[in-house]
Amino acid sequence: MSSIYRSEEGKSSILEDYEAYLENLGEGITREYVETRFGQTHVLLTGPEDGKPLFILQGGNCVNPMTLSWFSSLFKDYRIIAPDTIGHPGYSEETRISARFDSMALWVSDLLDHYKIEKSAFIGPSFGGGIILRLATYIPERIACSVLVSPAGLAVGSKFKTAQDIVLPLVKYRMTSSPSSLQKITGTMSCNCMKEMDKNIMGKIFKYVSMEQDNPKLTEREELVNYTSPTLLLVGEKDVFFPGDKVIERAQKIIPNVQAVKYDTGHFPSQDVLIQMNEEIRQFLQKNYE
Predict the structure, then answer these.
(1) Which in 124, 139, 163, 276 has the greatest CB count within 10 A?
(2) DSSP state of 5
(3) What is the pLDDT of residues 113-163, one digit of tens each?
(4) Are 126 and 214 in contact (CB under 8 A)?
C-alpha cells in the first residue's frame, strides 16, 4: 500500500499533533474503527448517545480534530460522528479514493449503515463540503439537511493567485522550512488569523504529506435534481480557494433549497466568525432538523 506520508517520522509527528488536538477538545470524545468497502475508517464520536446524529466531515489535507473543533458548540446537542477521511492525514486507510464520482458517497453510505442511520444532518468544511455534494448527487435520500462551509465542488478561485500565494511559497517551504513561507501560506488561507497550533500542524502536513491535489468535481445542476434537502451555505469573502461570491452564485443556480451567508474571512475562519457561524448553524438545525 502506498502511503500518503513522505516519511514515517513525519507521520508520527503529525499523529502526535492529532492526539494533542484531541486532548484540547476536552473529555467525552470516544473513537473506534469502522470497516467500509474502501478500508478501515477511524471515527471520533461525542455528544449525547441518544442525540440526533450529525456527521461532520473534515477539511482536506488537515487533521480531523482541527476542523471538528470549529463546531464544538454543537457537541452537547447532537450525536457527533466525525470520520477521518480516507486517504487524508489521520488514522483511516491511507489509500486515496476518487472524490470525482460516487466513491466518497459510497464510503459515507457505509458509515451510515454501520451506525444504522437512515438519514442524517451533515456539516462539511472545504473538502468535506465537496463530499456532501457527492452524497447529494448519488444518495440524496440519506441527507436530512446539510451545512456547507467554504465547500469544494461549486466554484474555484484564480489559478494564478493560488499559484502565487499558495503553490510557490509551498514549494519554497518544503525546500527551506522557511517560517516566512509558512506564514505566507497560512496567512493567505486565514487572513492572518490562523492559530499557532493550526499553523504548526499545517506546516508539518505541507512538509511530510503527499497532499491531495484533486478536489471533488464541480457539481452540475443536473446532478442535484433529486436533492431537495435544506442546505445552509457559509462562505468567506476572502477565500483564496473557493471565493465566496463565486460559490454563492453557483450554488444558487444548482442547489434547489439553499440559503447563503457570507463572512469577512478567508478559507480558515477567524474565531469571531466561527462564533457567528455556529449560531447560524444552530438556528438552521433547530428549524430543519428537530
Answers:
(1) 124
(2) B
(3) 999 999 999 999 999 999 999 999 999 999 999 999 999 999 998 888 888
(4) no
Counting the structural domains of the chain, the total is 2
Residues 141 and 190 in one domain: no
Question: Taking the complete model, does pTM exceed 0.90, yes or no?
Answer: yes
Same domain, residue pair 144 and 171: no
Which residue, among 9, 21, 7, has the nearest Cα to 200 in the 3D structure?
21
With left for phi above 0 and alpha for psi between -120 and 50, is residue 126 left, alpha or beta? left
Give the number of other CB atoms < 10 A from CB of residue 94.
18
Instruction: Single out the residue in 192, 207, 222 at which a domain terminates.
Output: 207
Residues 133 and 45 in one domain: yes
- Rounded CA separation 215/85 (Å): 13
Identity of the residue numbered 143: I
Q: Quick count: other Cβ atoms within 10 Å of Cβ 6?
A: 13
Question: Taking a C-beta distance cutoff of 8 angstroms, is the pair 246, 152 a contact?
Answer: no
Cα separation, 284 vs 146, in Å, equals 9
Burial grade of 62 (CB within 10 A; 0-12, 13-18, 19 or more): buried
Distance between CA atoms of 48 and 15, rounded to whole angstroms?
A: 27
For 27-43, what is each residue's pLDDT tens digit?
899 999 999 999 999 99
- Tell me the three cell numbers of residue 287: 428549524
Domain match, 176 and 35 both: no
Do 106 and 182 fall within a single domain?
no
What domain range is 190 assigned to? 159-207
Q: Are strands 39-46 and 30-36 parallel, antiparallel or unpaired?
A: antiparallel
288/106 Cα distance (integer angstroms): 25
